[in-house]
User: What shape does this take?
Amino acid sequence: MTLSQDPPSILKLSTFIPPKTKPEAAPPKPKPDSLKYSPICLPATECLIKPQVSLAPFTSFRVGGPAEWFVSPRRAEELQASIDWANQEGLPVTLLGAGSNLLVSDRGLPGLVICTRHFRHAHFDSETGQITAGAGEPLVRLAWQAAERGWEGLEWAVGIPGTLGGAVVMNAGAHGDCTADVLVNAHVLLPNGTTEILLPDDLGFNYRTSALQGDRRLVTQATLQLRPGADPAQVMAATTTHLKQRQTTQPYHLPSCGSVFRNPGPQTAGWLIEQAGLKGHRIGGAQVAQRHANFILNCGGATAYDIFQLIRYVQQQVEQHWSLRLEPEVKMLGEFQLA
Assistant: This one.
């Protein structure tokens, strides 16, 4: 109860006059403290929001601190309920797909991290040649399923270790092709809980980027246009060729995020880094790959800060050699600070 700032009460003979009081205000709603709270089960769902979950197992770099709160919905209503809960608690929301193009800080992430890797479904429409799939559907699996049906147009995606949702946001691509080339539309969930259907022209696609980067809209599913009717054996062979090419030119034996920097043109980022003499350069457990200089590997025991420092070092060295600053393709989440 809050007391007013009236003068002190006055005692007259045996009569006590109490001080005036203001109406009792409702106390502010405390924010949930993930260090003290147990997992939270959202009503009318099977969705469990867990506190202090390490994000390292959910990123391809295998580094990163804990999410303050973490949830992995499997259905649209669970995704909506999770976002509603975060909004009610005043918490920021971070969407995490396959974690293949992310560097998460060792300090972790505040608020609610929503992992969509279980948000999967796929429908192949043989009449239209379109695939409609959930944001958590692995791009590699869609590529193989399309090839088995004799559908052309997704062979390039077989070596990209990400989800469909992430591919839309990042405009993932390889071998001269990209997501923007085959996207029909994307369903996104707005912070207010409404769904919006966006066409490619709405997404501002560019090289390895889209208008959804840094946006609060969340991709829930997307539709791709492929070319059915080809010989499945030929499409499978072409898909296998793409995969072998990536496996022979890029290092997949150790954790990485894939390409770290965008290709500035006319030279590739890998060539510029190699010519600067940085192949094999190491900081802590992070190393510039020998096989492909645009890859940074977790050689064991690396921290996110090791990788962050190595990224900055490569940028500095390339800029000194070529008067050009490489732009990271990898998305950095959380707090990073150079010593």
Q: What stands out?
A: The radius of gyration is 25 Å. DSSP finds six helices and 19 strands in the chain. The chain has three domains: 40-115, 122-234, 251-333.
